[in-house]
Amino acid sequence: MAANIHGSCIKCGKTGGVLFCNGCQQTLCFKHVSEHRDEIEKQLEDLISQETQFENNLNQRDDSHDLFNDIDKWKKEMIEQIKQIAKQAKEDLRQLINQSNEKLFKKCEELKENLRLLKESEDLSEIELKKFSNELNHLNKEINAFQLIKSSNTMSIKIEQQQTNEISFPKSPSNDNILPSVEQSHSKEQGSILIREIDPYGHFIIIEYNGLITDKEQDMVGWTLKRSIDSYTDIIYRFPNDFTLKPKSFIKILSKHASKTRYSYEKKNILIADSVPTWGTGIKIIINRLIDANGDERDVFTQTF
């Protein structure tokens, strides 16, 4: 550690019997060399103690690191935040379900009433049954038409109602999947009042007054519509006593059943045939006759299937 060298002790200033410490590059007398060695040994013991403490800290590091507490705290905060998000999402879903139920219950009541009227009319057909079956299937799809939207960038979710395609039914016999092929023709037209259109589902018949011959209003007292379906049933409708038809106008005569369905919103140019549950549908041939107050046929509109 030390070697003989000329100089003075840095502790007491003695010049005789001094040694030079290569470790600390200092000159010390014999007395202070011993003290200096004790100090170095003490530093070594402290270092050994520090190393032992470090090793103990390493052994305890897995469970006692301060960041574990921070992570646990963060986890609790995130769980609480997720709970709040989920709670809000459930409230939104309940609100959507309540709104959907209100809408679906109303549609269901309309469908129930339509089915009741169809049953009472005893005028069943595959066309009507197919239409109501499609409507019911559509309502079933709307029950679970909700989806959960999760964001990949932010911690958020929301509920949306999926759009289901509205059911559209053909308005003419051109759709072979629903209606059979049908030919329509006028075999007798007298005057300017005639049958313009007949709904293929039996919901309505449209009478038109084209006003080509006269511009006077036509009193329809005593006028009737006679609809003969496949030679097994006749439906006769008599126009109201106070009803007149203006030139260049038309009137849509709804069946009682149709007046309580989607046609109920129509207010203009409408008559409701309360005595006719439905105008009915045919399989082979339907002959529609417009008859005036004198018993003359003003128009014969034939539908051949």
Question: How would you describe this protein?
Answer:
This protein is 36% helix and 27% strand. The strands form five sheets. It has a five-stranded antiparallel sheet, with no helix packed on it. Strands 7-8-13-14 form a four-stranded mixed sheet, with no helix packed on it. Strands 1-2-3 form a three-stranded antiparallel sheet, covered by helices on one side. Strand 2 and strand 3 (26-29) form a beta hairpin. The longest helix is centred in the N-terminal third of the chain and has 56 residues, at 66-121. The protein folds into three domains: 2-64, no CATH class; 67-161, no CATH class; 183-304, Immunoglobulin-like. It has three helices and 16 strands. The protein has helices at 30-64, 66-121, 126-143, and strands at residues 2-4, 18-21, 26-29, 146-150, 157-161, 183-189, 193-198, 204-209, 218-219, 224-229, 233-238, 244-245, 249-255, 270-273, 285-291, 297-304. The chain is of the alpha+beta class.
In one word, what is the shape? rod-shaped
* Rg result: 50 Å
- In the residues, how many domains can be counted? 3
Please summarize the sheet with the most strands.
5 strands, antiparallel
Round the mean pLDDT to the nearest integer and report it. Answer: 79
Q: CATH superfamily of the largest domain, called what?
A: Lamin Tail domain
CA-to-CA gap between the ends?
125 Å
The strand count comes to 16
The CATH topology assignment of the largest domain is: Immunoglobulin-like
Query: What's the helix-strand series?
Result: EEEHHHEEEEEEEEEEEEE
- Helix segment tally: 3
**Spatial ordering of strands, largest sheet:** 6-16-15-10-11
Give the helix/strand class. alpha+beta
CATH hierarchy, class of the largest domain:
Mainly Beta
Instruction: Kindly estimate the percentage of residues that lie in beta strands according to DSSP.
Output: 25-35%
